[in-house]
């Protein structure tokens, strides 16, 4: 293995990880939401809002971490609308998610106009003189930021929390049957609101990572459907937090391939190439449906939304 | 706490649901160390009464006093804290989770980190190991048999050190052997000082273990007596409100029946259930019952014969014509009269009116429906008999009567009934059976899947036993067939050979 | 008199009032005088002949997209794919025009419309068959496919279909006379609107009367029971998704042909999502979709003009729609809860 090959491999790995990171947060958040029996299509809007607010705060304060926090809070605040509509007013979940998305589209379009073209202080890279010399790891660290390990830790934590703790069990129960959960003394509505808000916080954080860390710019509708991809990936990951990481990496890989092909100078239309990641998700969604062994790992109460 | 202490008391408790009076001024005491049977037919209000104690909903008027609990029960969580446990008829379990998780969910002492190595979580399984060592704690509940699921439900309740245990119709899904075992548990619990409330419509349960019997009828408690104070006939009269001599018409023997409904080597598979090489023939005018422990393929059998699920092998013939579906894409409209369980999910369209539901075959075929709705509804006692009313507003029992009206209202070549009388009150059950057997008398082939061995023994010409998707025996019901023999076949136990 | 009987009218009125309140609040938040803005909005929507023409121009694609969502919606399918199907139809329709620009109008226009319908129909067929055969969720599939066809339009107009004469702006050549949908002179009220109205009436009859309507109602109510009596859910899923796609495809080519005059990346202003909103508000009833899409069309046209003349930001049309949708979602539920609380 030549040093060049290792470096190339490392670059691909870290690029994939970085591309997948915003999506990981959003998908993780939506997994939690769906595990309690709620579907939130507003993830797209929450990511967008997080990206916009995160960027704005990052620019204004010069501190990317404040930007990321602000983005998370903005996403969480927006998700309260979905929670209010669905749980407070008994509204249709699909419709509510789309309404939230619409409001976020308009809102970020409006507030974001002033942000276009601004510069944000990015997160520092993890590399240092200590690691630069090491093959593979050195390249990875040099291009990674804190967002990447945070994403991996988040996945690990949520997977552990859902499987091994008592509150995780209670959340799963609410997703399987709110009625039976109530019979066991769990306040289903409170759990659902919490899950929706956590989903919003994570989606907002993911959006902020997208604008502040990954692209370091703001553009209208910059999430380009990543939030909706997240909803699809939750299904591909069979609602298991641990699988969120590999499925998001798949999407990240697709995106990175597109970018590499473009920069390699091949004569492909960038728009045509741009369809590739979406097609990958669609294909994987269909395949996972064909090969799903258990008829459905979908939380039982979630099935009622689609019945 | 000595035996006989009052643990809970109902004082003139009433519960309304809109216009319906489900519980009417009931007064009753629950005492420790005693088995109290609450007896009544379906719809009498027994479950509702106990759900009031459990805190599922509050009484409309009256008071429920619980010892050592001055503020009353505000909800199931509070009931659990006060040591009141209820095993519901429809289990309160999450089929997608494991046995261990279901138990941990209901257990108040579950720690934050429910890892296996933690000693506290070991305690939750202690009672399970005691009652049913064969059940592995990590099994997914969906994969357990109904009897096993019931044991898990019971363990949930025992884990909270309940002082009052309420069992709602526990024996309707058990084999005779399992029923006997359950009766044993109940007596043992009472001996340990627990107050056991047994809600049932079966006299057999009362005879086996009740210390006191409270009879309910139309929401009211009409009588409370100690064991032995009343004869069974008196109790039945109190339950029905009139003397019932009541039984099913004895089967008219059928001479050399010509086969009408034939299953040949039928195999099928769907969502966890399977049928394996089923061969059975039902003759003209014959009533063939199918007995078995719930979850052994009965629903799949019904759906295959009704043409809903495809067969992977074999065929089903009605008067010589193929009626089973071979591929999922094929469409057939079933010619048999099919009466499934759970009419709301399986046999009616809630958004359509009663008249439209009656004419469903015609509507689906694109034809204009006929005009006889009103009389048909009256004949089958569907309440309210208003043809234009949306079907969704009817109760479960009335929906089943609607389905019967549609399926049994005209002569059919064959009738397929799958748990047709679950949840119906006695008058309705009588009516359904009357019509089914009338069809048989007129020449239809009747395939009747039921959980009630007494009904099957009373009225079927032959009884088939299904186990794990295969027919393990077909016995002639000629007077020598016993409950125990069927029970043994259902459970797969070796059958005692008849004394020569 | 009990509110129960007047509930639907009551709910609609309350929704409208709440929406007006939120709209006014929105303008106030922007620092503009709320009532003056609302008044201007109405004026810009229907105040003069030009405004009315603009309103109808906006109503047409919204109407068609709403019908495209409502058709599969009657079977209980939740398709959000009108946007993608619209673009697919636009691609196919433009393709035929570019291939045979010389054909006379009498032939080219029906041909163009048909091909566009086929294109949109194909784009609806894909999620339909995935749902029918593999039970893949159509909501996710249609949402993702939207992005694909929008990108394909860009790929085509930046690439092989680019008009060499248009300097910086990516677009095809201008459509020849024979390919432009006839319109009322000096207005933007074109054939598409007539098609939409006819479709709405036709769909009303098809979906509410007659034997097919009954079959769809049964399947929508209880699929198992429908299949027990010989109906095929799979058939209707595919048929209705494809039909919906075809209608949205027509919307796409109508925009290209009658309004834009060429295929370019900005043919749709989110009509697909707006169409979903309208279909949902109208409970998938074609005759109700007619006035609702007109209302929303007026809202969009008015907001557009407001943006130009009153310096209100461009995104306000989208925000207003979102507010309308959220209000319409919240009000019936809240009213029901209030009634239940009061009756306790």
Give a quick summary of the entry.
The complex is a heterotrimer of chains A (307), B (500) and C (344). Chain B is 31% helix and 25% strand. With 500 residues, chain B is α/β, with parallel strands linked by helices.
Q: How do the helices and strands line up, and which of them pair or pack?
A:
The complex is a heterotrimer of chains A (307), B (500) and C (344).
Chain A: H1 3-35, H2 43-61, H3 64-88, H4 93-112, H5 137-143, H6 147-164, H7 166-176, H8 178-183, H9 188-214, H10 226-236, H11 241-263, H12 270-291, H13 300-306
Helix pairs in contact in A: 1-5, 1-6, 1-9, 1-10, 1-11, 2-3, 2-4, 2-9, 2-10, 3-4, 3-9, 6-7, 6-11, 10-12, 11-12
Chain B: E1 6-17, E2 20-31, E3 35-39, H1 46-54, E4 61-66, H2 76-81, E5 84-87, H3 99-106, H4 119-123, H5 126-131, H6 146-159, E6 164-168, H7 176-191, E7 195-200, H8 203-209, E8 212-217, E9 220-226, H9 232-240, E10 259-270, E11 273-283, E12 287-291, H10 298-305, E13 313-318, E14 321-322, E15 337-339, H11 343-346, H12 354-358, H13 360-365, H14 373-379, H15 396-408, E16 414-418, H16 426-441, E17 445-449, H17 453-459, E18 462-467, E19 470-476, H18 483-491
Chain C: H1 3-29, H2 34-46, H3 49-73, H4 82-99, H5 105-134, H6 138-158, H7 191-208, H8 211-221, H9 223-228, H10 233-260, H11 271-281, H12 286-309, H13 316-343
Helix pairs in contact in C: 1-2, 1-13, 2-3, 2-12, 3-7, 3-10, 3-11, 3-12, 4-5, 4-6, 4-10, 4-11, 5-6, 5-10, 7-8, 7-12, 11-12, 12-13
